[in-house]
Amino acid sequence: MKLIRDTWLIFRRSLVLTMRQPVWILFGLMVPALYLFLFGPLLEGAVASAGTGTNAFNWFVPGLIVQIAIFGTAFGGFGLIAELRNGVVERMRVTPISRAAMLLGRSLRDVVILMVQATIMIVLAIPFGLQIDLPSLIAVLGLLGLIGLSVAPLSYAGALILKSEDAFAPVVNAIALPLLLLSGILLPMALAPDWLQFLSNINPLTHAVDAARSLFNADWGNPNVSLGLVISSIFAVFAVWVGARAFSRSVA
What we know:
This protein is mainly alpha-helical.
């Protein structure tokens, strides 16, 4: 009960601070929105050539919301670095609050913001021809929550270790950008050469993107769904464990 109460307190505090500057929620949508408006209309031929069996935007939008999930949560560590500099985390050391709750509360805030951003992106894509199935949409949002919980704790752990925006930013970009490009969020990997397809297949994010696309299009029996859910769940548990250990050591 103490962990749940403390997590709720940290979550509420973090969400209130975010809502005081809602412009950052919109900034997180800018790049995916540009891809949607300027790149999405060019995909009809590529998606048809890859034999995906769906229209371009039903293939493209799930990848875009996974992109929001990755970058939105991967850069969450910047806020923690600012709190470290301002002594917020230092003051928390003298309180009996659970160290795991300090991680979970922030991470759940990131997941909620992610859900809002993903919903806005989906609404923006409807005029382009995106077709929505409500149960499938709910399932995809659940998968996005797992992806967020796989990335946000690692971001906070990295922030606690590096303690500097100058070091944190290039590390996040060096990890997140290759993973996203290799996951096939922009173009079908079926069009890629064999060596690039091999790298994509060993990228865990690829399976999450494939699962999101299958769920979004109500292809519930696709093996990509179970594989993506299992991999995302394992990574979420691992990330929470790593992040909790980082908080326990740094805020002891």
